Amino acid sequence: MYETIQFIHSYWAYLVLLILLIAAFNAIIGYAADREYGAMNFRIALFTLIVSHIQLLIGIALYFTSPYFKAWSTEGVGGVMGDSVLRLYNVEHPLMMIIAVTLITIGYSKHKKKLTSRPKFKILAIFYGFALVVVLTRIPWNAWF
């Protein structure tokens, strides 16, 4: 079961990263170029929200089925925090990804309340941009290549 969830989580991550890149740059360009916010921009923002939440759910399932999770009981908190690999997979990656999904959710929710295009793009650019930075800092790159 763990291998299947890990496979899905790993490949869904490519989709999440791609759509988050597209959404962040779309918002930045829309804000900088003072474009009109339209249906396609809304769909990009919504799709980013959906795929990131699906990834979070897959990640939660993976976390609790992972052999790394068992280290909490075998190694204890000190052992997990003392080992950089265990700390990455048990603390840093999950926490930062939850923060990234939270930023995406807040950005999506706040942008819907704005009435004109420029503030919509600005909110999305800020929150989706920060979420992208957070994701890029805590991806276990050695596992990706």
From TrEMBL:
Q: Which residue ranges traverse the bilayer?
A: 12-32, 44-64, 91-109, 121-141
The UniProt keyword set, sorted, is:
Membrane, Transmembrane, Transmembrane helix
Question: What protein does this entry describe?
Answer: 50S ribosomal protein L27
